[in-house]
Write a structure and sequence with these properties.
The protein is mainly β. The protein has one domain: Jelly Rolls (Sandwich), CATH 2.60.120.10. The protein is built from 1 helix and 23 strands. The strands form 5 sheets. A 7-stranded antiparallel beta sheet has the order 1-20-17-22-14-13-12, with no helix packed on it. Strands 2-3-10-5-8-11 form a 6-stranded antiparallel beta sheet. The chain starts with a strand and ends in a 10-residue tail after the last strand. It comes from Silvanigrella paludirubra. This is 5-deoxy-glucuronate isomerase. It holds the Pfam family KduI. InterPro entries: Deoxy-glucuronate_isom_IolB, KduI/IolB_isomerase, RmlC-like_jellyroll, RmlC_Cupin_sf.
Amino acid sequence: MDLLIKSNRKSNEHIIITPESAGWQYIGFIITEIKFDQTISWFDSKRELCLIILNGEVTIHLDQQIWEGIGKRQNVFDDLPPHAVYIPPAKFIKVTATKENTLCALCSAPAKGIYPPRWIKPEEMEKTVRGTGTNQRFVTDILPASAKAESLIVVEVRTPSSHSSSYPPHKHDMNFPQEESQLEEIYYHRIAPNQGWVFQRIYTDDRSLDQSVSAEDGDVVLVPYGYHPVVVPHGYHSYYLNVMAGPIREWKFRNDPDHEWMLNS
């Protein structure tokens, strides 16, 4: 099982992940670069979409609506939340770049079409700080479990140089009410400066899965199950976009008991 998906910068679509290619049930994920004045489209009769403008700016046409000026960031390391759009199934949208170097993430998962489309603006997103010391990181909830969606949970995290993240190691691969929820997860990694990398380990209690990878700028790490901590080397800064989905839309996790002690230290 190869959990590291390399970015393809020779194509406008840097990353394409389907449930079939990932070998799981729920998450689809695309990173696409849209040139100035170019348009991409999306339609899926059975999947909801969270479109995140990672950097750049777009105009969106949806039914009779036109949403303009979506996205203001120059890059993902700006201290600004992104703009995002929620699209239910069976809605055709067109996305046109109105600035150069526009990069978008298209996150999808199964849905029935309960909720209407909406533009999720930066001021609606909660920003929090997690951890202390060299385990501190900065979190923006784009589409949290409390927001209106059927399957997707989306969050982005910036982690400073020489810090750990998603740590102490935690997992969410079994359904225990109020304790743990089963969620697939994607880590889309960005690094500054962009020649750097981060280390990520994915492992289970019995070590039947135990992979350590070095993810470079633009790579994706798949987390089908198991613990999945990240470490950022000195001199580099980390950004990652997390996409989660599973049979129950709830983010409950269990820490690795071997390392949970540090939460009380």
